[in-house]
Amino acid sequence: MRVLSAHKKPINCVAFSPDGTQLAEAAHGGDIRVWDVAAGTVRHDHLYAYGRFAKQVRLCFAPDGKALAAANEDIVFLGLTVVHGKTIRANYVPFSGVAYFPDGKSVVGVGERLGRYSPLTGGAFPRLKLPAPRVATCRWPACAFNRDGSRLALSRRTRKTNGSRYSETVFVYDTGADAVVAEFEWTGHPANRLALSPDGELVAAACGPALRVWDVTARALVAEKTAGAGDCLGVAYSPDGRYVATVSGDSATRFWEAGAWGEPKTFEWDAGALLDVAFSPDGATAAVSSDKGQIVLFDVD
Amino acid sequence: MRSDLFERQRLLNRRWFLRDCGVGLGAIALADLARAETPRPKTHHEPRAKRVIYLFMGGAPSHLELFDNKPQLAKFDGTLPPPELVKNYRAAFINPSSKLLGPKYKFQKFGKSGTELGELLPHLGEVVDDITVVKSMVTDAFNHAPAQIFALTGSQQFGRPSAGAWVTYGLGSESKDLPGFVVFSSGSKGPSGGNSCWGSGFLPTAHAGTLFRSAGDPVLFLSNPPGVDNAIQKDSLDAINALNKTRLDAVGDPEIAARISAYEMAGRMQSSAPELMDLSKETKETLAMYGAEPGKPSFANNCLLARRLIERGVRFVQLFHEAWDHHGGLTAGLKSECGKTDRASAALVKDLKQRGLLKDTLVIWGGEFGRTPMVQGGNDGRDHHPNCYSVWMAGGGLKPGLVYGASDELGFNAVENKVHVHDLNATVLHLLGLDHTKLTYRLQGRDFRLTDVHGVVAGKLLA
């Protein structure tokens, strides 16, 4: 167990690089830094995601680990792509989530709109083939790829025609077939965070205080669990598919055993309220970030 | 019948796993105990200290009368504290906007370093150039039991290993005939935090502190009762140990190994303890220096016994003196307790130095928190105060004569070079050659350490 800490600000997002040697964090205010995991030192500091006052920034490393995409939803513009030490491209669109396509040539950004962009030029790619909402008002809270990038999960929130209720949908998109293979709809809390199992067969979503898991092939909800006292703020699938990890703004990290979905293994850290969780690519280490500016790295047994 | 069958099957499975799979928990436990009794040369870095004597002043002595001279507090005696200072402040008993109380005792400068100490600590003044005073301690807890447990285990909830247990877990002991971690208690009562203050938590039980009495047999029933001679006792112990070992082989419970070890240690202590406890062999000068009287339990006796213990290889000695909770009667209470502790504490430093032991022995003196600058109990008391307090340390790798950190003008908040409880524990481990981030124990899939996810070594304290 190790602790990385360079400030006292809440860290809303943590993301490992594909080779596991780097860990990116986004702190309250949009302050992004990249850690050298082995040395425990900051490799790149103050990589701002275009907006010092940003509260929520989501991060994703490029497949080659040399670039970092950052999505920022709380201001009117977005720093989309940051390369070590400097921002190389900014798209002025508010996004709440971002993920690299496995070829590294494009990213998907979600937020007030859903788009696919070139990280280098900002140019738009052809739209993903998704069912069009029956209403004009919709937003896309979250997105996530599975391990090999063959599947992409997207969550959508639409306001129903009577204007009184929202409808929530999670799509699972096959990137090879360029088509949606499953969609799950409900009313209630939106899916603000998503995680796909490595094979893309299970999709886990943080929906308010609940963790929901759907089976893509069976097109069924297989688990719905209260993930903690507050809203579930972070969800991650272990690379071997054994666990779904959640954090819910308290001091606990909960590891839910996939398949059983029984009582979770709970690891308490006296690091404040935990805001996000991520697994290293080899699955050996988990990282949780806190509202006190600490990142706890610990072994996954 | 059915349950017997299942029980037998369960034990066979366990037996097979424990004994024949090459993991043998019993063997591991015994090896662990063996490690606990032999020196472990491997540290994370070059140690500056080999052992610790921790003089824990339970109840929390007032830093404002003993270490932290605040003329402004005297000047504003009887006035209300600045509202912004006590905004959101949570006191244990008083209204935070109680009037300020000026120091009850004067301060004077001592030694070449000119360190200021309260007038109640004249003996400490004689060794002030050998000690390091930290005036900027802070803690998270403001009641005695959680604060003591927090100071000594890094958690306010009981169940975590104490500092002494972590140290013996990390370094083992150099004594084969005495426990590696020994505890004494004096004062009006035992520590509010109870046994948790020296417990082993989830570490093997062999690392728990052993509470010694300060006169007579150090632990009860160490001497043979009338009618039991050495031969009978040996037969009894051999039989008990044989039974325990049979059970250990069967079920592999490490706690059985710890119990065997405890019996064996008790047997060895029957010969080592009387010699240890016999203070009459100390010179008159030494006894006078400490204020110790053989056969009469006291903090002074405990200090002298602490020196004798570390001379015999004991790794960690902890003295509790629970007597400083002066919500009222501050003036008389401080005078009384300083009278009991000042001479002996200073004598310990002096004695260790004379014997060449101070250079690799770490001495720590301090409580669980400080006292409020505001009054409680008429005009002669102070409430609990976690925002600022003072401790002193001496020996093993520290800068002697240093005054580290500072509080604000009223002694309310630590404002310069804050040292949190976790930082102090990290520093203690560092001086012993242990990296507080690497001294871990895995329990139920999670690594634990004395400082948990906190702690920074106070590097400026180090020589």
Describe it.
With 301 residues, chain A is mostly beta strands. Chain A has two domains: 1-83 and 271-301, no CATH class; 128-268, 7 Propeller (Methylamine Dehydrogenase, Chain H), CATH 2.130.10.10. Chain A is built from no helices and 27 strands. Chain A has strands at residues 2-5, 11-16, 22-27, 31-36, 41-44, 57-61, 67-72, 78-83, 86-91, 95-100, 107-111, 114-117, 138-145, 151-159, 166-174, 179-186, 191-196, 202-207, 210-215, 220-226, 234-237, 243-247, 252-257, 265-268, 274-279, 285-290, 294-299. Chain A is globular. Chain A starts with a strand and ends with a strand. Residues 74-80 of chain A have low confidence and may be disordered. Chain B is α/β, with parallel strands linked by helices and 463 residues long. Chain B has a single domain, classed as Alkaline Phosphatase, subunit A (3-Layer(aba) Sandwich), CATH 3.40.720. In chain B, 37% of the residues lie in helices and 16% in strands.
Order of helices and strands of chain A: EEEEEEEEEEEEEEEEEEEEEEEEEEE
**Class of the largest domain in chain A in CATH?**
Mainly Beta
Poorly predicted regions of chain B: 1-39
Fraction in beta strands of chain A: over 45%
The assigned structural class of chain A equals: mainly beta
CATH topology of chain B: Alkaline Phosphatase, subunit A
CATH architecture of the largest domain in chain A: 7 Propeller
